[in-house]
Design brief:
- The complex is a heterodimer.
- Chain A is mainly alpha-helical.
- Chain A has three domains: 41-257, Cytochrome Bc1 Complex, Chain C, CATH 1.20.810; 259-267 and 286-377, no CATH class; 398-535, no CATH class.
- Helices cover 66% and strands 1% of the residues of chain A.
- In chain A, strands 1-2 form a two-stranded parallel ribbon.
- The longest helix of chain B has 17 residues, at 15-31.
- In chain B, a hairpin with a 6-residue loop joins strand 7 and strand 8.
- By secondary structure, chain B is an alpha+beta fold.
- In chain B, 31% of the residues are buried.
- Chain B has helices at residues 15-31, 83-86; strands spanning 52-53, 71-76, 92-97, 112-116, 127-129, 136-138, 145-146, 153-155, 173-175, 181-183.
- Chain B has a domain at 53-183: Rieske Iron-sulfur Protein, CATH 2.102.10.
- The chains are: A mainly alpha, B alpha+beta.
- Chain A binds chain B through residues 70-73, 120, 154-155, 158-159, 161-162, 165, 170, 172-173, 175-178, 180-185, 245-249, 268, 270, 291, 294, 334-336, and chain B through 1-2, 37-43, 46, 84-85, 87-91, 118, 122-125, 127, 140-143, 156-157, 160, 162, 165, 188, 190, 195-198.
């Protein structure tokens, strides 16, 4: 079991019994690692996406208690949630910002996997399910902001419906099926999609999408949760105006992940081409990319064409996303003139971005190659930023300072809630999360310091912020992660049989082997230990 | 990827497999016509098999003998017992008696029009403006304008949309012997009465 509890009582026996029982389930097939050092979050962005999904699930479930998906009540009920329901403001803001964060993190996750070439090596299934999950994530976010039924939501629904309609042959029938007829049906059906159909499909896909090795980095998870709340505090989401069909709506643009598509729609070119065919083509190319990528190597430097295609898509996405937001501020012109983007101009820019991106990629690869060659010629520097060395005393000091700050923040948050300063309290809770992340990190650092006494020089240099080596499996630095969690585990228990050897080893195969089921409990126990330490 | 093994049988399909395939394809083809294609998730509250009154906002039934020329009213169709549903844009229709120069003086159905009020551009509610020089449907949102005689958009963003997205859905009317006006059961398709919020082909 890996963890020896000092005392046996009925509770620990029960827990042990549960643990043994769980061993038979699928969860033990997943290999969780709780890194004991800072590891680049790029490698476990997928896990962060999942964490955000869970946050969305919880806040969404609570919002469901108050939201009414009825034509003339939807907006009012959201207003009530925002203004009247205790903590409704917080729930709504966390839900909104977490949805944005989830789309963003999922996109980053995709591009990281793309450029690091991990989607090949028999990970095609992961990649394809990931793309479908990404599309569903955007649909989920889209249906979410539509069911508020503000002016912007109505515009979004009408555009979505007209796009569905424009699909040849099946279009009108699909619109009937997905949207029903009339606003009453739209709101109700989008709600059904938002809270059930899409999440359940996503959960199903996730089962396939999860790789066997998962990294759960507590401080990073805390940090991202904190960041979501902090953004919610600084940029509280507004209500928008209630949709009234007889009042001219203001100019609204969709959420940022759809403005790229919106830019194409605004070119007033054929709806099907701009709104369905282009995004469809984009998604299709993403789906088949691991099958057309024939390079034997993984690094972006060794796959120039694939990298260039990726850079092109990024450039086009960034340009169109901005373009979709941009509306000519000249109010003397007619609305149509301000909104419509000249299709010739738009498509010309899109085409122009291709050679530019290819050139840029060529230049980047050349520079990277040069840098590599230079690094080989020059004598190795004594590993620039090897590690930050803090004395034991200063670690304690930092820890106590952070703890005091936490206490202060908690009091501040409490008073902010009492005073009705909703977004201020949300902001503070965000900071509390971030401080907790920092504390956990310091704690973890101290633990590993304690574990690695005098013989320092033998410790292999750790890439702190550098790109993690491209190991074929999920974790960016599986070796370190494995070694780290061992250390944590050992600090709790007294058995020290394997720890020193695994710590020294950096060979991936060995450490991946050592990441076994026992780890999944070890670190959690050490967390409890943190709490008890604080109390002392 | 590249190193996929080639099929062992050399790409040949055995007789048994072929027959199985034929049986499967036959089964699918047999049942395909019986599937109610395209009517998977309809909402039957929009359907009506019987004629309904043209009920004006004051609750009375429109009558050909006293409805003023060059005038319009909002009509709810299909009307339900649910006040919330009756507020639905997709159930609001503009009942117009055409101006004199378009034949509004006649005492038959040709003088009347019943168009969906949902603008074909982005679903605001347009309405008929009877003033001299206007006499057309105008949408407050982006300025689409509709010809009262045909329901075709002639200006604004809706007019730029390709057919059938530029002609308003229209309900057919009939007049009883007492002059009361009734709405005939509609055929919700682009070639029939049109699809609300989508459009109709001009025939």
């Amino acid at each position: 079991m890996g963890v020896t509890l000092h005392k046996e009582n009925s509770l620990t026996r029960f827990l042990r019994w549960v643990y043994v029982g769980v061993e038979r389930t699928i969860f033990m097939g997943l290999k969780f690692t709780f890194p004991s050092r800072f590891v680049s979050p790029l490698g476990f962005l997928g896990m962060l996406t999942f964490v955000l999904f869970i946050i969305l699930g919880i806040t969404g479930a609570l919002l469901m208690l108050f939201y009414e998906p009825i034509l003339d009540r939807a907006w009012n009920s959201v207003k009530t949630i925002n203004d009247v329901i205790p903590y409704g403001f917080h729930l709504r803001n966390i839900h909104y910002h977490a949805s944005n964060a989830m789309v963003m993190v999922a996109l980053l996750h995709m591009y990281y996997q793309y450029f690091s070439g991990r989607y090949k090596i028999r990970n095609e299934i992961l990649w394809v399910t990931g793309i479908i999950l990404g599309v569903l994530t955007i649909l989920e976010a889209f249906t979410g902001y539509d069911i508020i039924f503000s002016e912007r939501a109505e515009l979004a629904i009408s555009i979505a419906a007209s796009l569905t309609n424009s699909i040849p042959i099946m279009g009108p029938q699909m619109r009937d099926a997905f949207f029903g007829s009339g606003f009453h049906d739209f709101v109700l059906r989008f709600y059904a999609f938002h809270v059930f159909f899409l999440p359940i499909a996503m959960l199903g896909l996730m089962v396939v999408h999860f790789p066997r090795f998962l990294v759960f980095d507590v401080p990073m998870v805390m940090a991202i949760t904190g960041a979501v709340m902090l953004t919610g505090g600084v940029f509280p989401v507004d209500m928008g105006l209630k949709f009234d069909p007889s009042v001219p709506p203001g100019i609204t643009v969709p959420e940022w992940y759809l403005t790229g598509l919106y830019a194409f729609l605004r070119s007033a070119y054929d709806k099907f081409t701009t709104g369905v065919a282009w995004p469809g083509l984009f998604i299709f190319i993403l789906l088949i990319v691991p099958f057309i990528d024939r390079y034997k190597k993984f690094s972006w430097k060794d796959r120039p064409i694939v990298t260039a295609i990726g850079i092109t898509s990024l450039a086009q996405i960034i340009v169109t996303t901005y373009w979709g937001f941009y509306i000519d501020p000249d109010r003397t012109k007619s609305l149509l003139e301000r909104l419509v983007i000249d299709p010739v101009f738009l498509y010309l820019v899109m085409i122009l971005l291709v050679p530019l991106s290819f050139g840029f990629t060529y230049m980047m690869i050349k520079l990277a190659r040069n840098a590599e060659a230079n690094a080989k010629i020059q004598p190795k520097k004594p590993s620039g930023k090897s590690s930050i060395n803090l004395s034991e005393k200063s670690i304690y000091l930092i820890f106590i300072a952070l703890l005091a700050f936490q206490v202060y923040l908690n009091i501040a948050a409490y008073y902010a809630v009492l005073a009705g300063m909703k977004n201020y309290s949300l902001f503070i809770v965000g900071i509390i999360m971030l401080v907790f992340a920092a504390m956990f990190h310091v704690y973890r650092h101290g633990k590993s310091m304690q574990k690695a006494p005098p013989p320092k020089p033998t410790v292999p240099p750790m890439p702190m912020k550098a790109k993690p080596p491209s190991l074929p499996k999920t974790g960016p630095t599986a070796g370190e992660v494995a070694a780290g969690s061992k250390v944590l585990e050992d600090s709790v228990t007294k058995e020290k049989a394997i720890a020193p050897s695994t710590k020294a080893s950096t060979s991936s195969s060995q450490s991946v082997q050592s990441v076994n089921k026992t780890e999944s409990t070890g670190p959690t126990h050490s967390e409890h230990k943190v709490v008890s330490d604080e109390k002392k | 990827m590249a190193e996929q093994p080639s099929p062992k049988s050399g790409g040949k399909v055995s007789r048994r497999d072929f027959i199985k395939l034929m049986a499967a394809a036959g089964t699918v083809l047999t049942f395909a016509p019986f599937v109610d294609w395209g009517k998977f998730l309809p909402n039957p509250t929009g359907q009506s098999k019987e004629r309904q009154k043209v009920e004006l906002p004051d609750g009375s039934q429109a009558n050909v003998n006293n409805f003023p020329v060059n005038h319009s009213e909002a009509v709810i169709y299909p009307k339900t017992n649910d006040a919330a549903l009756n507020k639905e844009s997709f159930r609001t229709w503009q009942f117009i008696r055409l101006p004199e120069e378009l034949g509004g003086k006649k005492n038959d159905v040709s003088a009347f029009r019943l168009y969906s009020m949902v603008c074909l551009h982005l679903w605001c509610l347009w309405k008929y403006w009877p003033q001299e020089g206007r006499k057309r449907g105008e949408c407050p949102c982006h300025g689409s304008m509709y010809d009262p005689q045909t329901g075709k958009a002639f200006a604004g963003p809706a007019s730029l949309q390709a057919p059938p997205n530029n002609v308003l859905p229209r309900l057919d009317l009939e007049i009883a012997s007492d002059g009361n006006m009734w709405i005939k059961p509609p055929n919700w398709s682009v070639n029939g009465n049109g699809i609300v919020g989508y459009g109709r082909y001009l025939t």
